[in-house]
UniProtKB/TrEMBL annotation:
Protein name as catalogued: Transcriptional regulator, LysR family
Keyword DNA-binding assigned: yes
Domain of life: Bacteria
GO molecular function list: DNA-binding transcription factor activity; transcription cis-regulatory region binding
Domain annotation HTH lysR-type: ranges: 1-58
Species of origin: Pseudomonas segetis
The family this protein is said to belong to: Belongs to the LysR transcriptional regulatory family.
SUPFAM superfamilies the record matches: Periplasmic binding protein-like II (SSF53850), Winged helix' DNA-binding domain (SSF46785)
DNA-binding is among the record's keywords: yes
Lineage: Bacteria, Pseudomonadati, Pseudomonadota, Gammaproteobacteria, Pseudomonadales
UniProt xrefs under PROSITE patterns: HTH_LYSR (PS50931)
């Protein structure tokens, strides 16, 4: 059947955007548009209303979506089986909100299973869980606690949130500050969907504090570069602050802890490679 066209329809339907669907599938926007229109043309059906910035499903699209979702899951199951049925080889696809916990696990896993190909993609908490639910990755490490009954999870570790500032910033001389200290400074924030952002906003709300200015930057690497250039300050996990001569770490009073959880779909946790990685993770946490 028209696998590519259906996959394009499914991703556009979930995200409501040609642009976002193209990013998820690693294709160009014109390709996604062509695939969706081709599906509609071949069957003389309208699947989306195209008014405004966000695409909306028609009734036909609403009824088609669960059928396509089931097909995508079955295709993913077949691919997963074939990819992992070998005795010495296979491929393990991982996603994480940050590499710090996962890289040590990947190193140990690779030592035990050198023939297994491992890939790791980085995103925010919302993105990595979506990738797991869409069968685009096999395991996901997220700082967001997810109680979905379809998922099993293991807490890999915890880290305090701290304030990262430039060495010449007025707060750099302080070892520890209250949340109120953020009120007069430019605060660099992660994008929506980031657990760090959620925890930061909750911390500010509890203290009834509003930053003088907010600047949203889409990933942690860019935020660190912005702090290095003394554009603003940022609340991030302690271990995410790199060893850099221009950076200083300032502790925050009553700062929340941020955890990292390893997630797996329960239906797949007994698969050979997934079970091996989970066993390794359990033993590491217990060390």
């Amino acid at each position: 059947m028209h696998s590519a066209e259906l996959k394009a329809f499914y991703m556009v339907a979930r995200l409501g955007s040609i642009t976002q669907a193209a990013k998820k599938l690693g294709l160009s926007q014109p390709t996604i548009t062509t695939q969706v229109r081709s599906l509609e043309s071949q069957y003389n059906v309208e699947l989306f209303y195209r008014g405004g910035r966000r695409l909306t499903l028609t009734q036909a699209g609403v009824e088609l979506l669960p059928r396509v979702k089931k097909l995508m899951q079955e295709e993913a199951d077949i691919e997963f089986f074939l990819r992992n049925c070998g005795q010495a080889q296979g491929k393990l696809r991982l996603a994480a909100t940050a590499p710090y916990y996962m890289l040590d696990l990947i190193k140990r896993f690779h030592q035990q299973y050198p023939q297994v190909e491992v890939s790791l993609e980085i995103g925010n908490s919302q993105q990595v869980i979506e990738a797991l639910e869409d069968y685009r990755v096999d395991l996901a490490a997220s700082s967001q606690l997810n109680t979905d009954a379809r998922l099993t999870h293991l807490t890999l570790g915890q880290d305090p949130l701290v304030l990262a500032v430039h060495r010449e910033h007025p707060l750099a001389a302080q070892q520890r500050v209250s949340v109120n200290a953020l009120a007069s400074h430019c605060l660099l924030m992660r994008e929506q969907g980031s657990t760090t952002r959620v925890l930061t906003e909750e911390m500010l709300a509890r203290a009834n504090v509003s930053a003088a200015r907010l600047l949203e930057i889409g990933d942690r690497e860019s935020i660190r570069e912005a702090v290095v250039r003394n554009i603003g300050v940022s609340v991030i996990a302690r271990q995410e602050v790199p060893d850099h001569p221009d950076l200083r770490v300032v502790e925050l009073e009553q700062a929340p802890m941020i955890s990292e959880h390893l997630y797996c779909l329960k239906e797949r946790r007994q698969a050979r490679l997934l079970a091996a990685f989970l066993t390794l993770a359990h033993s590491t946490v217990g060390d």
